[in-house]
Amino acid sequence: MAVDLKMPVLIVDDYKTMLRIVRGLLAQIGFSDVDEALDGTEALKMLRTRHYGFIISDWNMAPMSGYDLLKNVRSDWELKTLPFIMVTAEAKTENVVAARKAGVSNYIIKPFSADVLKAKLKTVLGDF
Amino acid sequence: MKSQPKAPIAQRLADECLTLYRIMLDGCRQIELLRDNAFGPGVADRSVSELLEAKKETEVAVDRILASVEKLMATDCSDADSVRQAINVNCMAIYEACTFQDITGQRISKVLHSIRVAGAALESLHGLWSGSLVAGPSAAGLSSEADSLLNGPALSGEGLDQDEVNRLLTANVGR
After folding, report:
1. Could you tell me the fold of the domain covering A9-125?
2. What does the pLDDT look like over A71-101, one tens digit per residue?
3. Contact B95/A24, CB-based, under 8 Å?
């Protein structure tokens, strides 16, 4: 089944420039209904008020990091199957292993290209 | 004239010595914190490397953005399809290039953290040496805030690239 490009998407990053970039790349790919949050706490509130198709989150944010957001999402009965893509500059093995253990759907290292983002979205969501 | 009893003088001397000892001990502790967190082996070098890397990333990004703008300006405007394609391709390239700002921002934040730790420790030392027993802000407190999993962007030659991350994600490791 083709992916619904109209599905709502949540992007989380404390750098507003990054939010603009990811929003722009998603728009180029075809996703137009994109909401933004500046940290994990705000994201969690939004996730509990709207049904999102997937979430793209940075790791390094305060007060709630992307890693803590991921653990919160995976421990929430209603959110635990939500596709969660971590987009981060954290490039150590321990980070990837921790994120995988916490249930991340995919992991993108910053800086990244539009092609990598699209390929990862296809891996997680299926062809579109 | 009454002579002061010997015991209180000895007591005062002992107290002064104890105070001096405490000041020296606090001073040593602050110097250790400075050495470990700001000027220790590799820490100052690392800060310099982070700034050099940030400078390089900025140059690369600006070069990519300018190259995309030049390509856009050189587009043959008489052909609508090639204009549309040039806009799409070059705008994507500009978006990608702009991701440098997040990375350089994180590098500069790491250097700022080291400077703050050094500043807090120097302030404490100054307080101790100027006769005040009240220690300044604790450098230890500043450094302990960092999450052990937060390393920030890697330097060239360090960290994993996307292919290595992909392999780790699909590897059969115990969960």
Report:
1. Rossmann fold (3.40.50)
2. 999 999 999 999 999 999 888 899 999 999 9
3. yes
